[in-house]
What does this fold into?
Amino acid sequence: MRLLFIRHGETPGNVLGQLDTAHPGPGLTELGERQAAALARSLANEEIDLLYASTLTRTQVTAAPLAAARGLDVEVLEGLREIEAGSLEKLTDRESHLRYLTTVFSWSAGELDRRMPAGPSGHDFFERFDASIARIAADAEGSGNSATAAVVSHGAAIRVWTGLRAANVEADFAARHVLANTGIVAVEGDPDAGWQLVHWDGSPVGGLALADPTAEDPTGRTL
It folds into this structure.
């Protein structure tokens, strides 16, 4: 099967550089809403059989135009949420950004015992994210082995999961590759055979005209 991981549109927290991971989280900025609309247009020629979002508001709002355009329901899965920032929540300083990113990208390098300050370990994150991917794969079985699922999730979560689970990327790949709001990462495979990265577009899906170079966005940058 094919998974299209889509990062949500821009949020106020992204603009301010906040480590903003709590539920239910903010909606989108005006630019984020335009990014979500552009997403539906840009994927017009993509075969999409299933559509998922996390429990955070921003992913569901981002998925809504695509769902309307395709006549699909958005299935909300708890495990697709962003990696919790723990005691770093809402902080905007560079030191906190670096501590967050250093922690999560150590997980994509296989250091799963490392823990976010007052937050999850890599084992915690992969257990719940893998469970959601397994659920999506099970849903896809009814649509055939060639089914494509669009998964609207979060910058750090998508990058870290792909960095460890895609067999054809190096350990530091996720740390070195940005994923802007509505950037898309495509993988193919299944939970049993494993996953291969086939495409990583770190720019907004509607083009650089929908990028915000002034946003501080901690989880959209490289380590």
